[in-house]
Amino acid sequence: EGLKNVLACSHAHGVERFVFVSSSMVYGTYANDSTEDAHCFPLGTYAQMKYSSEQLVRKQSGTMSWVILRPSAVYGPRDIFDRVVSRFATNALRGRDLRVQGADQILDFTHVEDTARGIALAATSTVSGTTYNLTRSGTIYTLNDLATLCVSNAGQGTIKIEARDWTYPIRGRLSIDAARRDLGYDPQIDLPQGLAEYQQWIQESAYWSKKLDLIQAHV
Questions:
Q1: Which residues share a beta bridge with 74?
Q2: How confident is the model at residue 217 (pLDDT cuts 50, 70, 90)?
Q3: Calculated CA dihedral for residues 138, 140, 143, 149, nearest 10 degrees
Q4: This prediction's pTM
Q5: 100 - beta bridge partners?
Q6: Which of 3, 28, 32, 165 matches a 20 to 30 Å C-alpha distance to 46?
Q7: Cβ neighbours, 10 Å, residue 78
Q8: How far is CA 198 from its chain centroid?
Q9: Residue 216 above 70 pLDDT?
Q10: Are 66 and 3 in contact (CB under 8 A)?
């Protein structure tokens, strides 16, 4: 309903361009270097709602030009507390266990600054009626790689390897060739650099440093 209202308001106020931020989760399980024309089989409510929203944008865009973006595993400053990178990063800083459900599971970790630049490029571009993957698409990193980097940066924390969650799709690295070609998208921040900066930001944040201290005090 929220997206329907935004589209209706956009029409009413003469908005010329609409950028919808979807998710790589719409693909469900996919292979490395998948392009935007890969089959979509969304698993779970979040992915299904994102996929349905994409169809809504395509059908109700009217005279507006539109672009749909599919980011993946976005992380960085101001990230919420319950996503995989933020959970691993904060648990390492707290000296707690990092539960890795499927050590060899691959995610296309993308720094928020690269994502934001991609959104800005899409908003100011002249291309229309197109969908783009908007990810890092660089070196392949697994969940175990992520956990190892978090523990190394923090100097504490314990990695616990567990079986993968079979209700979650198998993912990989997406192709961003189309976004590079059409939008000039060129992500710059690889996971080791971005993660180190993110964990430093957590420690220097007035809010998060106090929250971590409170959590540690009750362990």
A1: 110
A2: very low
A3: -70
A4: 0.91
A5: 161
A6: 32
A7: 11
A8: 14
A9: no
A10: no
